[in-house]
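Help needed: design a sequence for this.
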């Protein structure tokens, strides 16, 4: 299984206080009174602290929060100014930000480039009109395609973020989103299964019964499938599932969240690969499954879930670390009468 190698990132969370939108999943309004104010001064302090430690070569400063380019221009530039000294002295290799697809225009891109921005991540969430409308995103799928084109024409690297399991999302609308992402072929992708946060529209809809969030197992099923398709297309999936944090765990009231969501997805893909191979062994066989030491825990699965799954299929599988390429699986029938071998 391909592992994404990433240079370091110094992340700065810049909330968009006073955002005029009301996306169904966003808790910006409910937290605006509680959150510590983020100012250019607090950002400067964070950066000084981060760069007082040795950062890996190629480290970028990232302005996350979702709508960076929708901030008032003066404030956006004031944040960017704080990063300038670290770019000039070579401690940071570039800047990146996340924003809304309709927050991109030529004037803003010229400003971003002036300050050394190299990568812009767009919160697309879905590429289906109905899903975008129902979740009150306030932009269209065409806005995503247009923003990507403008970014690329102006030499930016493009990241996309999508969500699965939003209200109105069906296998068909998700397929539309996945095909759209494959067509765009972003430089990187983040996939977030929907999590219901306190104080959001999603919470209201969940409580009045008009929305039922997807459970963890279904989300793993769906997201592992997307991960496999993206890896096959050479699109790096740099994030799967929300970052674990105490705040998230306190504020979450429903939906698909697990602190090791990516590992669950990778483990599911290994399970499916092994399932396909097991068909060529007689039911009841004892199987020795040799994998790279890096893949042992993913192969066994969380709480030995994969081993139990194969047992239910009628196979007693033993997983052992061996000198094989990461991502390779070597299956051997482990019997008193010799062995059969399958390499995947
Ligand atoms: S997710 Fe939507 S509501 Fe929240 S800050 Fe971004 S644009 Fe505004």
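Sure. Designed sequence:
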């Amino acid at each position: 299984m391909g592992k994404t190698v990433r240079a370091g990132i110094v992340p700065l969370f810049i909330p968009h206080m006073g955002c005029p939108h009301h996306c169904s999943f966003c808790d910006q309004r409910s937290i605006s009174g509680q959150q510590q104010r983020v100012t250019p001064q607090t950002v400067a302090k964070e950066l000084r602290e981060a760069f007082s430690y040795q950062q890996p070569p190629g480290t970028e400063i990232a302005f996350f929060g979702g709508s960076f380019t929708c901030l008032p221009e003066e404030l956006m530039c004031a944040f960017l100014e704080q990063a300038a000294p670290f770019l000039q002295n070579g401690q940071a290799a570039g800047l990146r930000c996340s924003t809304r697809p309709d927050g991109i225009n030529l004037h803003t891109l010229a400003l971003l480039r002036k300050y050394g921005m190299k990568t812009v991540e767009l919160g697309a969430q879905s590429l289906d009109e109905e899903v975008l409308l129902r979740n009150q995103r306030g932009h269209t799928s065409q806005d995503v395609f247009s923003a990507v084109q403008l970014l690329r024409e102006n030499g930016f690297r493009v990241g996309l973020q999508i969500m699965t399991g939003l209200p109105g999302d069906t296998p068909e609308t998700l397929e539309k989103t996945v095909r759209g992402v494959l067509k765009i072929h972003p430089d990187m992708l983040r996939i977030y299964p929907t999590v219901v946060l306190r104080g959001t529209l999603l919470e209201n809809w969940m409580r009045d019964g008009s929305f039922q969030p997807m459970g963890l197992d279904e989300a793993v099923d769906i997201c592992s499938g997307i991960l496999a398709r993206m890896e096959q297309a050479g699109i790096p999936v740099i994030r799967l599932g929300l970052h674990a944090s105490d705040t998230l765990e306190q504020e979450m009231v429903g939906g698909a969240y697990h602190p090791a969501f990516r590992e669950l997805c990778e483990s599911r893909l290994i399970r499916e690969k092994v399932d396909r191979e097991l068909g060529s062994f007689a039911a009841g066989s004892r199987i020795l499954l040799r994998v790279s030491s890096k893949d042992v825990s993913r192969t066994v699965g969380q709480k030995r879930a994969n081993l139990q799954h194969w047992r239910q299929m009628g196979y007693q599988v033993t997983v052992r670390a061996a000198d094989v390429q990461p991502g390779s699986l070597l299956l051997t029938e482990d019997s008193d009468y010799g062995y059969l071998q399958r390499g995947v």
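Residues 1-5 have pLDDT under 50 and may be disordered.
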